[in-house]
């Protein structure tokens, strides 16, 4: 019976971190545009892969701290200090996401067709391709990544299960940023035209799309953390 409970908890955890990973993926349209721009530069594939590697290294660093330093503390009991701290962190992150996204949504400018690529993208061409990995690490959504880490710690499972959950989160989080790279390798003849169309659409719709997803994720974190605090 205990084994079934643990397996059930692990399955629930994987579903939750996968959902948070998808939230990271779909609230990172600027990162997708960055990858598309990198692919258009000399050594573009190398630069784009370095970006994704930096993104994954940042997640791995969070996972290493979680598994090697925080694992073993009593995050499983709703009444334990670590668990309540993790739940409070979720409520705080969720509140910040909702407040920030609502304010940005209200202040957003109407979308206009034919928006140009932001000027700072031009600086990428003048940097070493290895710096693309640092850009990838910086552009990761740390708020949602910490929320995923909190969920993993609160599940209070084995290090192996934690590692699997981290891997699931990492893989789902890169679905959108890795898509342009996959397209370049799979269909190089059509990639240029398709990626330009993606970039144009994202530049027009990225802000609204990301803010709406952040509102939903923030509300979920507030609900989840609040429920655990009062349980």
Structural descriptors:
single chain, disordered N terminus, 79% helix, globular, 231 residues, 9 helices, mainly alpha
Q: Layout of helices and strands, plus pairs?
A:
Blueprint: H1 2-26, H2 29-39, H3 44-70, H4 81-107, H5 131-139, H6 142-155, H7 159-173, H8 175-186, H9 188-230
Helix pairs in contact: 1-6, 1-7, 2-3, 2-8, 2-9, 3-5, 3-6, 3-7, 3-8, 4-6, 4-9, 6-7, 8-9
Describe it:
- The protein is mostly helical and 231 residues long.
- The chain has one domain.
- Helices cover 79% and strands 0% of the residues.
- The protein has nine helices and no strands.
- It has helices at 2-26, 29-39, 44-70, 81-107, 131-139, 142-155, 159-173, 175-186, 188-230.
- The longest helix has 43 residues, at 188-230.
- It is globular and about 55 Å long.
- The chain starts with a helix and ends with a helix.
Spatial extent as radius of gyration:
19 Å
- Give the overall average pLDDT: 81
- Low-pLDDT parts are 1-6
What is the helix content? over 70%
| First-to-last CA distance | 24 Å
Shape: globular
Strand portion: under 5%
Quick one: how many beta strands? 0
Helical/strand content category: mainly alpha
Largest beta sheet, briefly? Answer: none
Number of domains: 1
Number of helices: 9
The run of helices and strands is HHHHHHHHH
Give the oligomeric state of the chains in this entry, treating copies of one chain as homo and distinct chains as hetero.
Answer: single chain
